[in-house]
Amino acid sequence: MDNEKKNQSLFLKLIPYLDKYGILILLLLMILALHLMQPDVFLSWRNVTNVFKQISWQSMLALGVFMVIVTAGIDLSVGSIMMLSLMLLAIVAKAGMPWYIVVLVPMLAGLLCGMFNGLGITLLRMPHPFIMTLGTLYIFRGAGNLVSGGVPISGFTEEVRYLGHGRIDLTWLGLEESQYLPVSLVLIAIVYFIFWIFMNHTRIGKWIYAIGGNPNAARASGINVNKILVIVYSLCGFLSGIGALILAGRADSGYPNAGLQAELDAIAACIIGGASFFGGRGTVLGVFAGVMIMGILRNGLNLMDVSAFWQQVLIGTIIVIAVYIDVLRKDFGTRK
Amino acid sequence: MSSPKHIVLEAKNISKYFGTITALENVNLTVREGECLGVVGDNGAGKTTLMKVLSGLYKPSNGSLFFNGNKQILNSPKDSQNLGLEMVYQDLALAGNLPIGENIFLGREPTRNFGFLKLLDYKKIKALSEAHLDKLKINVKSANQKVEELSGGQRQAIAIARATAFNSKIVIMDEPTAALAIKEVGKVLDLINNLKKMGVSVIIISHRMDDIFAVCDRVMAIFQGTNFAESELSNTARDEVIGWIMGKK
Questions:
Q1: Do A217 and B108 touch (CB under 8 A)?
Q2: What is the CATH number of domain B1-84+168-249?
């Protein structure tokens, strides 16, 4: 009996750590399992860099959607923002603009699309961000098809493709030529680090969490909630624009189906990573783990030649389990 | 109360109309330094409207406000905060997902310079809030504890600590003991007595006669938007005050 009590209290003490690092443990277990199943391939240089290249643009969308979810909102339009930004990039590139303008276009377009979402939600007083961004999911994709005529536009210069396609040579470290570092991997690391600082160590980041925790408290503290929301949706759009730039490099093409259903992948990564739909909860590290888990799962199952349909079933199952763990954590962790 | 202390807040002839509805008509209110004033009245009598006028959330239709004897026009709650008046809201206005310290400093977080960046100074937040909680004799494990882990009474105490963290001179509390367990009511009332000792003036809106008689020095009743009765607490009794609420003298 005493022993049982001891175990119980040990479990309770572990909860905060599980809350923080549980998802990383899950990620490490998955890596270990896949490594044991595919010892020659899975952790090879080629495959690991492949995984990072595959998750590169998704990770940008997920990070943007994460900030929105922390405010207890949702952004369904990130896939469409990325597609519209990509199409504008392709048109400007085809028009023969210099590369430094071409790379700015998707970032600016994404930022403005996100700002449009934010202003719509706050100025039009939409009952829920779901509605505004559901509308812009259609609007932005329609606009992308209107400007491009609904056909792919291909062929970009190396400078434009650098973020998505570039490689950093490591032969000076004594490594082989095939052991390069993808630029997109470095970009993910830099962007995630910047947003980790932003969310955890700046006042605006703190206010984003406060708005998600209790918008009335934020308002009573003199925080301009609407302004912060516009900033959050704008940043989310901006990150989608960076996603478009990466995708342009990887695909060397702007195509009408770019980012189709990508918003759902982004939301799934946030949820798996421990962000709560009720707002105020989740970490940048968690989102990264969520993106990695989805990327590794797809990659590992591909390596093992498992059908793509099973991948869908598995990802769905992981979402449900991850949220159930969150429900359990709430039962134990908070007073009611 | 031998020597009368100076008046920190005075409202003179406050009227407030919403369209054709008269919420307040020529209401007067004074609070002295370190004094606790109880405001009682039935639902809809105008107590909350009066408090919203005092905090600058509503602009009065007529009448004026004097802080330390100076006439002031409040355009927003920010103005009254700058004059040292804080409001403790009924819904507590705390973010449960944030730690105690970050709630106390929410919107006014201290930062330190890191190159060209201004980053949050977590050490300062923790140290300053723990010192403040100590001063008010509020016991919590640590300022890093999340507010959602606290009991209702502790949350009320944190809300009061938040309101007094920035040298405020007047604190308005709307039903501070509503929804609290009985054993926690006493702690919140102790806290109010501590504030008075520190020279902070407190205005309490409450239906609970126990609270009024435990901490207030003076009580005033509002009936249908007007001053109905007012008395030093030592000169009145519970039944009389209950009569005032119902409009009987």
A1: no
A2: 3.40.50.300
